[in-house]
Write a structure and sequence with these properties.
- The protein is an alpha/beta fold.
- The strands form four sheets. Strands 2, 3, 4, 5, 8, 9, 10, 11 and 12 form a nine-stranded mixed sheet that branches. Strands 14-15-16-17-18 form a five-stranded antiparallel sheet, covered by helices on one side. It has a two-stranded antiparallel sheet with strand order 1-13.
- Helix 15 (321-337) runs parallel beside helix 16 (370-388).
- The protein has 18 helices and 18 strands.
Length: 549
């Protein structure tokens, strides 16, 4: 029996080694919060793995390697047999076993700080120095981080006073946005594209020709070329765009308890008489999307609302982008027939591993990598806009195209800012003149900018600002589930969960590189970074950023 258990354990360790290899290939990191988060959604993740990798071949390799290791250990079984045949008393053996069991638990609790492994300025070196299994359990333990318990803080009175200067908030952490003239009720179609980093687009300098349609569209749209995602997960992008708040440490508000009735763009639209729909290619229970959107001003349309006739192609993450956009057209038509202005929030999935899509649409075969996923999504968006042009609601509709997050978070630095750069296009040929806006800005600024374009007056608890305002203060927020970044004017402040803060001078070195030079933290930069993140946590914790009752 003991030999069988040893063989099983060897298989598990070898399987873990294979798993770490492929996790690194996808994310450039050891097991982290993403791995823990995905364990909750085993159906999607297992099917994704089955569609992405040659699992029978890999399992066979695990078995063969484990068998070889077991064989060499078994050859030395005399050493183990002498241990198993020990004549020492039961209690003595139990005490020794308890020491070997309790010591790892003790050290894990005392030394559970990933910063111990961070010995280099090169983040790849730091990640490689970590223990994969330790990282997995550490991430599981630290999946919720209270800002005040782990990060650098200031007195809350100082924080809230500075927040007023930065945002214009009053004592109730809100602000009334007043516009002169008539409000405009354009239909809004927001397309949030899975993993569309700037690095994949020709308009930003990529030469692979993956986004010919979006590149052309950028010349006809209001194009923001210095725009940044707040995080590395879809639900981070949703949090930023829907709630207009800086990223919270730990998991996104979308997945947190007590996230109903937030001050959201959905409720602002609803108050203006709009019909709001969150339209998702997959099953909306994933990552708590349906729960979040349905309690923050949106109706839900996901894969469960699509008939067999409406689905021509799908994988584990959802229907292909073309099917999704065809469904969105039908939903828009229905709202128009009811005489209601509509806000359709569309979330794509085709640019996600396993990168499968209908054959014959583009010149890159399905299931060959991210390049194909990007190009197919580009093709699908072009087809959608072409069909929309024939609809009676087209001329009164503003199309917003934005990525949910970057295509990867790995880099030599802990927060590789260049990877967070994403496109934002606001396209309405009969309404908005083409222009390129190069102000440093964030996903949290999208909705306030859109409301300004429509000349809306409204009470706001949004941290985001109108990018088109001449008084707009350029800054962006970038983060992982632990590190919180504040980017402004060639400088990056990074707040870490050991109550430390660091600052770097940054300089662009092309599409895929930014030079970092560590400097002594500037008081104003660090105070502003702390103000944004500490206040956002405070307002959420104390229910101060809720929709009016």
């Amino acid at each position: 029996m003991l030999w069988f258990l040893l063989f099983v354990n060897i298989n598990l360790l070898v399987f873990n080694a294979f798993s770490e290899w492929f996790f690194w290939d996808e994310f450039g990191k050891r097991f982290n919060f993403i791995a823990v988060d995905y364990l909750v959604y085993t159906q999607e993740v297992i099917h994704d793995i089955l569609e992405s990798y040659p699992i029978p071949l890999l399992l066979a390799a695990v078995f063969i390697i484990s068998s070889v290791i077991f064989y060499f250990i078994y050859r030395k079984r005399g050493i183990l047999d002498s241990a198993f045949d020990s004549t020492q008393g039961y209690l003595r053996r139990l005490r020794v076993a308890a020491v070997f069991i309790l010591l790892p638990v003790l050290f894990f609790n005392v030394l559970d700080k990933q910063s111990i492994a961070e010995i280099s300025d090169n983040q790849y070196d730091n990640e490689l120095s970590k223990n994969g299994l330790y990282s997995l359990f550490s991430a599981f333990r630290n999946n919720t981080l209270e800002y005040d318990d782990f990060y650098k803080t200031e007195d809350i009175t100082t924080v809230m006073s500075n927040l007023k200067n930065l945002t214009g908030f009053d004592d109730n952490s809100s602000q009334f946005i007043k516009k002169d003239g008539d409000e405009l009720k354009y239909n809004i179609v927001l397309i949030m594209v899975e993993s569309l980093s700037a690095e994949y687009m020709g308009i930003f300098g990529d030469n692979r020709g993956l986004t010919p349609n979006l590149d052309r569209l950028a010349g006809k749209a209001l194009f923001f070329d210095n725009f940044y995602a707040t995080g590395t997960r879809t639900i981070r992008g949703m949090e930023a765009v829907t709630l207009s708040v800086p990223p919270t440490p730990g998991r996104s508000i979308v997945k947190r308890p007590d996230n109903h009735n937030m001050f959201s763009s959905g409720f602002v639209f609803k108050e203006k008489g709009y019909e709001n729909k969150f339209i998702y290619a997959g099953y909306g229970y994933f990552d708590n999307m349906n729960e979040f959107f349905s309690h923050n001003g949106f109706g839900i349309v996901d894969r469960t609302n699509m008939s067999r006739e409406e689905i021509t192609f799908s994988n584990v993450w959802g229907v292909c982008d073309e099917d999704l956009f065809n469904k969105a057209l039908k939903e828009s038509d229905e709202s128009y027939r009811r005489g209601k202005p509509f806000f359709n929030y569309i979330m794509t999935t085709s640019n996600h591993r396993p990168y499968t899509y209908p054959e014959g649409k583009i010149d890159i075969p399905s299931h060959t990598g991210r390049a194909g996923g990007v190009k197919y999504t580009d093709y699908s968006i072009a087809q959608f806009l072409k069909k929309a042009e024939g609809r009676p609601w087209f001329e009164n509709t503003v199309f917003v195209i934005v990525a949910d997050h970057n295509g990867g978070s790995a880099g030599k630095t802990s927060l590789p800012a260049w990877r967070y750069r994403i496109p934002l296009l606001i396209y309405a040929p009969k309404i908005i003149a083409p222009n390129t806006i190069s102000k440093l800005s964030s996903q949290i600024d999208l909705m306030p900018t859109l409301f300004s374009i429509m000349n809306w007056s409204y009470e706001s608890k949004f941290y985001g600002r109108d990018i088109l305002d001449e008084k707009f203060r350029e800054r962006a927020f970038i983060g992982t589930y632990q590190k919180l970044g504040f980017l402004r004017e060639g400088r990056l402040v990074v707040l870490e969960p050991d109550r430390s803060g660091h600052e770097y001078k940054t300089a662009n070195q092309g599409l895929r590189s930014i030079k970092y030079e560590k400097i002594a933290p500037l008081y104003k930069d660090e105070l502003d970074a702390i103000t944004y993140y500490q206040s956002a946590s405070y307002l959420y914790k104390h229910h101060l950023n809720r929709w009016k009752q």
